[in-house]
Amino acid sequence: MAAVVLALAGCSAGDTPAADAPAAPAVTPTTGPVAGSAGLGDGAFPALGNGGYDVRKYALKLRVDPARRRLSGTATITATATEELKSFFLDLSRLRVSSVTVNGRPAADAVVGAKLAVTPRASLPADRPFTIVVHYGGALVPGDRTVTEPGRIPVRQLPGGFYTPTAPASASSWFPANDHPSDKAAFAVELSVPEGVAAVSNGMPGERSTRDKRTTWRWSESGPMAPSAAFLLVGRYQVSTLRHAGKPMVVAVPAGSAHQPALDRAAKIADWLARRFGPYPFSSYGAVVLPDPYAARGLPAQTRPAFSATALGRPTGPAAVAEGLAGQWFGASVTPRTWEDAWLATSFARYARWMWTEHDGGATVEAEVSQRYETFPWQAFPAYAPGRADALDSEMAADRGAMTLHALRRRIGDTAFFALLRSWTASRAYGTATTADFVAAAERASGQDLDRFFDVWLTGPYRPTY
């Protein structure tokens, strides 16, 4: 029997990022238009993302062929130039581009590796908005295993369709993007699929229409979202909308399957987490059940504002729901600014799982930590900057970061610890953050110098004193 994966969703929190959201990449003064950089120099994936502009919104209108795992259509990208640009890049892998326009005028384009180079007819002034329209399409790469190479993230098969796992460069596997978590943007997605097939994406469901035996599904996420959080599921699913605490809760389950019992407790678990982390950060909830026990490994599983998956079946149950829901605070709302900072999502969600397990009558957090502490391979798996492969598959790094959080809680006490988490989610809401930001916040909350503590627990090659 296939294991079941539950995905939980939070939807738009508003159009305005937090005041402390990071600015666009620093600009070197120039005397004329420049070519935007190809890559942002991320420590784990230096080629991901692009310089010279800041995306505000992606609007995708796609026609999807579920059986052949093909899509075609347009991506309309609204951005602001952060310097005067004569050309710039988008991330796009293994899909064919038929045309590109910038501000309504045809632009020169060329696909170079996993980059789409764009040269507009006229240079783009700094601090001015511009619009890119890319007509593209092609077949998505199928597969059943995580591929540790950006641009080769496979889609996972479903009965009657597929879905896109989220990972570094997963966005650019199905649409052109500035594919780095530091450049969050709003999303609007229209998906045309054969009648009787469901198409699920991020955020709030919009009007659904059917014509010529095809149904168009509409989804929107007006709050800023990392491109890697973008999610697409196409298949024979039943999609319904429930209500909780005055907010919609979108639930998608395979057609003909029994409603998963863990879903029934999702709303109560969300309320329990809110009492520890602060108010639920989005205007709706959601859940999708997926037949893949590996769909929720690592940061991607915790950062989708509209479907933060976590594996059920290993073990199944409400603890997995708690881990997925915690990703709405730590990952979807407060997004790690680089892939080296991934533990700020995965480890916080993992620690929430352990806390819920204790609350629900299972093993205590202390027992969970003790079980891992003695045998954990400290030298092989740092939590911060775990390396390229572990940024894609970071179970061990997530555990180490969660142990770090428990050690911090023991050191500064419950009152300061939970005040820190509530302050963190409030002050950084809808923006991005680094490990250094969290260390500074922990020092303010505790009045202690914690640099050495975090160095040892997050990256030290030897077992810390516990």
State the name of the first-level CATH class of the domain at 257-466.
Answer: Mainly Alpha
Query: What percent strand?
Result: 25-35%
- Report the C-alpha radius of gyration, rounded: 21 Å
Under the CATH scheme, the architecture of the domain at 257-466 is Orthogonal Bundle
- Tally of strands: 24
Tell me what the structure shows.
This protein has 466 residues and is an alpha+beta fold. It has a domain at 257-466: Neutral Protease, domain 2, CATH 1.10.390. The protein has helices at residues 261-264, 266-277, 318-329, 343-359, 365-373, 388-392, 395-412, 414-427, 435-446, 451-459, and strands at residues 5-10, 34-35, 53-65, 70-81, 85-91, 96-102, 105-106, 108-112, 115-119, 129-139, 156-158, 161-163, 185-194, 198-200, 204-205, 209-211, 214-225, 233-235, 237-244, 247-254, 285-290, 308-311, 335-336, 432-433. The strands form five sheets. Strands 3, 4, 6, 7, 10, 13, 15, 16 and 17 form a nine-stranded mixed β-sheet that branches. It has a five-stranded mixed β-sheet with strand order 19-20-21-1-22. The radius of gyration is 21 Å and the shape is globular. It starts with a strand and ends in a 7-residue tail after the last helix. The relative contact order is 0.14.
